[in-house]
Structure prediction request, 206 residues.
Amino acid sequence: MAPFSKPETVLKQAEGLVSVGQTHAALQSLTEMFLSKRFRSTSLASLEPIMLRFVELCVEMRKGRVAKEGLMQYKNIAQNSSVASIEVVVNRFIQLSDAKVQEAQEKADRVVALTDVDDLEAMETPESILLGAVSGDQNKDRTDRALVTPWLKFLWESYRTALETLKNNARLEIIYQARHASFALLPFRLIVTPFSKSLNKPSNSA
Prediction:
């Protein structure tokens, strides 16, 4: 195992890797901190900035499992001294995941809008207009499935990770309940998306 480096040094090295496009290496360098025995004795003031950058990179690369492992490690360290720090990191993780869904939806809407403009320019008859409307719905469905659904799935799993991180600790109970309430409302946000259709699709198994 590599020798333990100061958190500030690790964070600086990770930022350097990100700046040259090596985001996977940057995430790996932050993850390796969790494997060090000295990780548990490092002050939260030094660890929290690393955790915030860690979840940012996890979301950017959709590394849900890596994020979960890191959050559980951080919970084990911080739960007896600063539940507020855990809340900050978990909330940031959810906010970033949610922002990715919004970003993907806006991108999908732009793609569909450009496609619709091209279709309108080609339409000349009532029949072609009706066919174009059906085609437009199909284009939107395909675009949403390609661009939005992967991020919706990631957001869904991010909420599950947040709840796993926060459960079974009395000091985290209030935060857990707040996140649980948000998670319960999530299906209503997904109701008109291809992801919700896949959730509601009847199983073929007996």
